[in-house]
């Protein structure tokens, strides 16, 4: 295991044998130590805001610092080899424990609640085709907030549809 070898990550980088798990762990450790990281986007769940192969700038934050509409980096579980970046759509507290609800912009459903130890950072910038896009501007923050609220509305409609059959069945033709 990497933990049992001194300078294992350094050796693996030099020999080109660094696994995706080792890279993920390196990113997690760097964020926990307060370092800003840059990481490639690999999925499309946040498209069109974040596109595949965008370079994301992630700043470490605590769960309490994440606002509605911001995009946070988190680990889904220990077996997942990449960090996930999704938008915060709700904040809450259950039995004294604060949590966040996130959802990918293109996803129909919310993620499982995130606990404080799951949240590692927030995306503060995107580098795409030589351009830098700041996600910290007032206009971007407003767009993110509105997108998160739209997500809430769509989620409520989905729940209503499943629970009470809203919008299901055929319409009777008008006479």
Strand content: 25-35%
Largest sheet: 7 strands, antiparallel
Query: How many domain modules?
Result: 1
Instruction: Just give the CATH class.
Output: Mainly Beta
What's the average pLDDT?
81
What is the approximate shape? globular
Give a short overview.
This protein has 175 residues and is α+β, with helices and mostly antiparallel strands. Helix content is 27%, strand content 26%.
Describe the protein's architecture and organization.
By secondary structure, the chain is α+β, with helices and mostly antiparallel strands. The protein has a single domain, classed as Ribbon (Umud Fragment, subunit A), CATH 2.10.109. The protein is 27% helix and 26% strand. The chain contains 3 helices and 7 strands. It has helices at 8-15, 20-32, 138-164, and strands spanning 37-40, 55-60, 71-74, 84-94, 97-103, 119-128, 131-134. Strands 1, 2, 3, 4, 5, 6 and 7 form a 7-stranded antiparallel beta sheet that branches. It starts with 7 loop residues before the first helix and ends in an 11-residue tail after the last helix. 25% of the residues are buried.
């Amino acid at each position: 295991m990497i933990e049992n070898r001194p300078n294992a990550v350094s050796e693996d980088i030099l020999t080109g044998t660094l696994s995706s798990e080792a890279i993920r762990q390196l990113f997690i450790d760097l964020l926990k130590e307060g370092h800003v990281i840059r990481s490639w986007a690999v999925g499309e769940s946040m498209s069109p805001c974040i596109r595949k192969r965008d370079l994301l700038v992630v700043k470490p934050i605590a769960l309490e610092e994440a606002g509605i509409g911001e995009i946070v980096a988190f680990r889904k579980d220990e077996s997942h080899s990449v960090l996930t970046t999704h938008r915060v759509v709700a904040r809450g507290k259950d039995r004294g424990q604060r949590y966040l609800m996130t959802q990918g912009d293109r996803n129909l459903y919310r993620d499982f609640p995130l606990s404080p130890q799951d949240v590692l950072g927030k995306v503060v910038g995107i580098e795409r085709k030589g351009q830098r896009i700041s996600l910290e501007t007032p206009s971007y923050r407003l767009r993110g907030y509105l997108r998160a609220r739209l997500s809430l509305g769509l989620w409520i409609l989905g729940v209503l549809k499943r629970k009470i059959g809203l919008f299901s069945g055929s319409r009777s033709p008008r006479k």
